[in-house]
Amino acid sequence: MPLRETIAGFLAAQMDFIFFLYGLAFIFLGAVCFAVARIRGPKSSWMPLGLFGFAHGAGEWLDLSALVVPDTAVFTLVRTAVMAASFLFLLEFARQKAIRFGLKPLEGAPLYTALILLVMLGGIVGGVPMAGAFARYGIGFFAAIGAASVFAAHARGLSGTAKGLALVAAGGFALYAAAAGVIVPAAPFWPANVFNHSWFFQVTGIPIQLVRGLVACVLALSVWAIWGQLQIEEISSERYAAYLRRQFIGTLAAVVTILACGWVLTDFLGAAYRRDIQEHAQGDINLIASRFAGETATVNGMVKALAESPSVLPLLTGGSGQDERRARTVLDLGVEASGAGLGAILDTSGALVAASDQVDDADVSKWSAAPWFQKALAGQAGYHFAFDPANRGRHYYASYPVRRDDGSIAGVAFLQKSLDRLDADLRLFVRPYYFVNPDGIVVLTNRPDMMLRTLWPLPAEARSTLIRQFGTLDDRAVVEREVKDGSWILFNGEHDLVRRSSVEHSQWSVILAMPSAKIHAGRMLGIIGTLLMTMMVLIYFFGREYGIRDRIQMNKRVELQELAQNLRLRATTDPLTGLYNRAKFDESLASEAARSQRYKTPLALIMYDVDHFKQVNDVHGHQTGDEVLVRLSEIVFECIRTTDLLARWGGEEFVILAPGLDGPTAHQAAEKLRAAIEQATFSVVGKITCSFGVTEFSEEDSAATLVARADDALYRAKLRGRNRTELVSRSDSIRGGMASVA
C-alpha cells in the first residue's frame, strides 16, 4: 500500500483524538481570553472571543461524541446550532473591535437576526447539512476574516514580540477562515458539493479537522503569549517576566509530551479492542463463507461430475436415442442431487442441447455471452453469481467443459442454483452483512431496506449499464468512497468498522459492519486520561504562576508600604537624634489638646534644653555637640512613658507631650529626668545639665499659648540658675519681651 494511503488510513482512524485535540485547543483559547478580559475589564471585547473558544471547543467535543453514540438527526441539529452560535461570538468580537477602531459596523441585533434566519432557511431548504454549510459560509468565514483583520490592525501599532504575536494570531484566523469557512461538509449545492471534507481528504490524504485543530493550537498559543505580555506589563517585575517565559516553555513542552503519549496510549487501547472486534468479524465472515461454500460446493462438484460423465458426451457427438435418454437421466439426477433449479448441456456455439426443464429462448440466447460459458469454453471451471432483474432472483452458475476423448472441448455443462434459500438462512444472522458486486451494489443482505442499494457512488459511465442489468436501483450512496477492509464508515448514523472479504469463485464480496462502540470506549479511556493529565499540568503550572504573581504583588505592596512608612518617618523624624521633629510634635499637640478638651483629661507639656551648649560646640566642636544631643535623647527616651511624645524642638531644645499628667505630676517627672541627666556621664564633655520648664494645658489654651507658657517656664529655670525645673501655670506666666538666656 502506498505511504500516502497508509497515512490517510491511519489519520482516518484517529478522528476521535483529532476532535479531542481540536476542542481542547479552542477551550484553552477561551480560558486564556477570559484571563485577558479579567485584565482588560469585564466589558472587554476579549469576552466574546473567549465565548467563541468555549462554544467552538464544546462543539468539537460534541462531534467527538457523535463517533461514540448514535448520531441522530436531533444530535446533528444540536451540534450545528452550537457551531453557528460560536461563529456569532467570533463575529461579535470582530464587530466590537471594529467599533473601537472607529468603524461603524452594523448593529448587532439586526445583523445576527438576519444571519440566524439565513441558516434556518438553509435548514428548511436542504436540511441540516445545508444549514451547517450556510453557517460556515455566511458566518464562520467572515467572522474569522474579521478577527484576522483585527489582529493585523493591532499589529500595526505594536513592535517587537507583541507585533509578532499579533501577526501570528492574524495569520491563524485567516487560515481558519479557509479551513472552516471554505472547506465544509458536503451539502446539496455548489460549492459545498465539490470543495468539501471528502474532496480535501482525497487531495491531501489529511482530514481537514486535523488542519483546523493545528490552527486552533497556533491561535491558543499566540493568545496565551499575548496574555503573558499583558501580565508582564501589569506586574512590571523582571523576576515575574523571567518566570513567565520559563513557564510558557515548560507548560508547552509538558502538554505536547502528554498529548503525544496520550495519543499513543489511545491508539494502543483502541488497537486492543480493534483486534478483538476484528477476530469476531473474521469469525462471522468465516461462518458466512462456510455457509456460502456449503451452498455452492455441491453444485461445483456435481457440474464437474456431470461434464465428465460418459453418458453426456453422446449428446454432443450424435449418439443414439438410448444414449440421449441415458444422458438426460444423468442430467436430471445431477440437478436433483445438487439442489440446482436448472441443468443444461450446451454446444460450443451456446446452442441448447439438453435441459432439465423448459427454458425460455430469450434466456438461452444470453448464455453464449455469459462469463461462466466463456470460462468453460476456455477449458476452465466457470463460476458466476447473477441477478435476474425480471424476478429479482439471485442465482449461482457453475459450468465445466465437456471434453472428447482427445481432450478437445465438445460443449459445456452447467447448473443454475437459486440463492433464495441461502438468503432466507442468512437473514437470521444478527450482524448486518452485505454481498456486493464490484460496483458496490448490494445483491444479498439481511437488511431488506439495503437491497439493490449502492454502498458507494456508481461510476458515471457504468450507470446506465447497471440499471439495465439490475433494473430499479437505489443509487443514494451510503458512503462517500469504495469500502476497504478495516476502514471506518458511517452506517445509519453510527461509525462502524467494516470488514470486506472476496467471495470465492466470483467478483462478489461480503461486507460486515462491526459496531465500534467497544473500540471507541477503549480509545475514550485514553482520551479521558490524556485530558485529566493535561488539566493537572495546566492547573499546576497556572496555579504556580498565580502563587508567584501573588507573592510578587504582595512583596511590591510591602515595599510600597515600607517606602510610604519611611517617607512618613522621614517627614516626622529628626535625622540626628531619631526623635520626632517639630512638625510631628505640632500635629500631636493639636490632637492631644482636642482630646483633653473633649474628655476633660489633663495634659502637660515639658520643655528642656542643654545648659551652656554653645560652650560645648565652641570647645569640643559640633561633632561632639551632636553626640551629646544623641546621647541625651537616648537617656530621656528610656525614662519617659510609652504614651509620652518626645520631640526635638530645635537646636538643643526638646519638648515632651505628656497626656494624662497634670502640672505637679509633670513637674515631678521632669525633675526625675533632670536628675538622671545630671548623673549621666557623656564622652568627651563629661557632665552636662539641662533646665526644664513645665506647664499644664487649660481649656482656654491654644497650642501656641501652651508652648509659649512652657517656654516661659524654661526661661524661669534659666534665670534661677539653670539645672532646675520650673512649673508655670496660666495665671503666673512671667515671660514677656525679655531677651533669651543662652
What report would you give on this structure?
- There is one protein chain.
- With 742 residues, this protein is an alpha+beta fold.
- Helices cover 61% and strands 13% of the residues.
- The strands form 3 sheets. It has a 5-stranded antiparallel sheet with strand order 2-1-5-4-3, sandwiched between helices. The protein has a 5-stranded antiparallel sheet with strand order 7-6-10-9-8.
- Strand 3 (382-388) and strand 4 (393-403) form a beta hairpin.
- The longest helix has 71 residues, at 238-308.
- Mean pLDDT is 88; it is low at 734-742.
- Residues 601-730 form the GGDEF domain.
- Its EC number is 2.7.7.65.
Summarize the structure.
With 742 residues, this protein is α+β, with helices and mostly antiparallel strands.
